[in-house]
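Audit log entry. Action: structure prediction of a protein-small molecule complex. Ligand: zinc ion. The ligand was supplied as SMILES and no pocket hint was given, so placement is left entirely to the predictor. Protonation state taken as written. Sequence taken verbatim from the request; no trimming, no tag removal. Recorded inputs:
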Amino acid sequence: MTIGDNAFRSCEKLEKIIIPDSVTSISWNAFMNCTGLKSAVIPESVIIGRGTFSGCTGLTIYGCSGENVKRYAEKEKIPFKYICEYPQNSAGHDYVNGICTVCGADDRN
Ligand SMILES: [Zn+2]
């Protein structure tokens, strides 16, 4: 399933989103100018379109240490944290030697 172009654009009251695994992509500008948006939890498999979160000035993206979501956040200069740092969403995450086997969060310090 895809979240379409401009789907939630300028929904200023939106504060947090948790994208389910059933979503495969988020299209252009889907959350553009959601100025109240503080957190977005995004599975690693989701393809994120251009400008999806532009204008979301208070946003932190929560994701995994793979090539997709984290790299997107870095490219768009959006703060990134691991899903394990978003406590309500870390069910099923397992730590081996201090590193989460699901999202890659490092708990060794
Ligand atoms: Zn984790």
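Audit: result stored. The helical segments are 69-75. The pocket of zinc ion is lined by residues 82-84, 90, 93, 100, 102-103, 105 (CB under 6 Å).
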